[in-house]
Amino acid sequence: MTIPIALTIAGSDSSGGAGIQADLKTFAALGVYGASVITALTAQNTRGVSGIYPVPPEFVTAQMDAVFGDLDVRAVKIGMVAQLATIDAIAAALARWKPSHVVLDPVMVATSGDRLLSAGAIAGLRTKLIPHAALITPNLAEAAALLDEEVASSEAAIASQGTRLLLMGCPAVLIKGGHGQGPESTDYLFSANATIALPAPRILTNNTHGTGCSLSSAIAALLARDEPMETAVRSAKAWISAAIAAADRLDVGRGHGPIHHFHGLD
Question: Is 213 a catalytic residue?
Fold first, then answer.
């Protein structure tokens, strides 16, 4: 049996709701074999991050070379990169192995509000990783940080930021609206040819830990299954909406609990 393979390059969440753990759960839920490259270890639970231990960049390189040297990786998701030296290591390996699809989730802050990326590393995201990506998936705050601007508060401002993020070298940008206001959570998919609004009812739940990680890994999984970009984004958004809606069926932790990755099996 041949199974599509996706690789996640991200940090580990010791509580299992975000990062590498969420990505591997997402890959499995969507019928894709998951491999991983760990960039950092975190001491973390549903209430916050109490410690971050970056993996040495040379070991990030060793992990990437081991995976790409043996597995037929069809798509890559990049999440928490932690530091500039790690960005350099990832960019060099991507240039060497040239994977077909790279989805970059520019993780800067956890759901709990804890910072996961140094300010000095943001420039490395802009110039070294975004040009390798087929898609980047910033939320409103991350899009603003990449452009060094205020957070967009209108559809026109979001459109302006999305268009300018495309100029950083990636063919598609998905700005996520989950941190916005109103009864709908609208994501916007930007490409050179179109801007597509993707609205969904806003789900009132405290259990949103790992949502961004899981959405980007869902898109990568569907790209690994040879779905076109727009179809992959639409299907991933529908899947993540269902996972958030089912999150309250779980009882994990005392803070921002995880989404329900395996809601389809209940």
Answer: yes
